[in-house]
Amino acid sequence: MKTRVLVPVAMMLAGACHRRGDEFAPAPARLPARDTLFALDQSRSDSASAHGVSEAMLGLLGPDAAYLRAGVPTLYGIDAIRAMFAANPETSGTSMTWQPLGGGISNDLRAAYTYGIAARVTPRAPVRLERYIAYWRRDARAPWRIAAYAEVGAPPASEGSSPAERTTPPMPTLSRAMAQARSAVRAADSLFADLAYRMGTGYAFAATVAQDGVIFGNPQLVIGPQAVQDFFAGGAGSSLSWQPVYASVAASRDLGFTIGEYTSTGRGPTGAAVQRFGKYLTVWRLQSDGTWKFVVDGGNPTPSRGGDR
Q1: What is the pLDDT of residues 2-17, one digit of tens each?
Q2: Residue 199 to residues 171, 225, 239, 284: CA-CA distances in angstroms?
Q3: Least CB-packed of 6, 13, 222, 248 within 10 Å?
Q4: Where along the chain do its domains lie?
Q5: Choices 2.60.40.1120, 3.10.450.50, 3.40.50.150, 3.40.50.1100: CATH for 176-301
Q6: What is the H or E stretch that residue 180 is in?
Q7: Cα–Cα distance for residue pair 228/293, rounded to 1 Å
């Protein structure tokens, strides 16, 4: 029952914050593959109601998935993620709904991404609105599975639930063409970081975001270069530096993601510089001119040190 009530709430909130300047973001294209993916993404809500939040997530993760949760380093592999959920059981009576707000799919229909709102309800708290990014893959005649997932604004996990051997990025064997494509995606993120160092964070984000690309404001979604430029010009955010530590790309070599680590530098109450540390998931799409632009970007803090990207 809670699932059925919360989904309309999330949809109304999505309509209120999903803006680009003074225009509403375009509705998703009605491609059958993307419709199927969006329905699967949203179906986690019913699964969580029936089996619990952890099982709803674990049931859709691929065996080599990467998971970004606040409070712990990036986790790689289903066993590491399952151990993290086991060490951080949800409060009895907790329910969640997920509402995708946007996304896209690769040219070969084998990779995709979604982003949206997650609404969490616990017996002792009102609705808590979070955001998420999911990067999906599927093989021939196989269902969609999440390859990388980032919680944005969710409660942190306990620090003791991520042994070091579970936080090392995998090193898959790739063909030469795939290795070059993956290197190109990682290089795009590195160039993005270098541009931020030379020209400033706001300039770098506005120059690197796709026309329909998204960053998470507070609470709004910020969509497209002009809105991103205005967002940073308004004093939002702090100085950021970052570096990618892992990259992956679709077989069609037009969609991919990077995972990395960031440092946010701002001023504390006394005026002294304060650094915060975190990790991020950025999804990239190849543009018609051959450049890579990001379509969604978000992250969360690393252990005990705060911060948010």
Answers
A1: 333 344 444 434 443 4
A2: 33, 15, 11, 21
A3: 13
A4: 2-159, 176-301
A5: 3.10.450.50
A6: helix 176-199
A7: 13
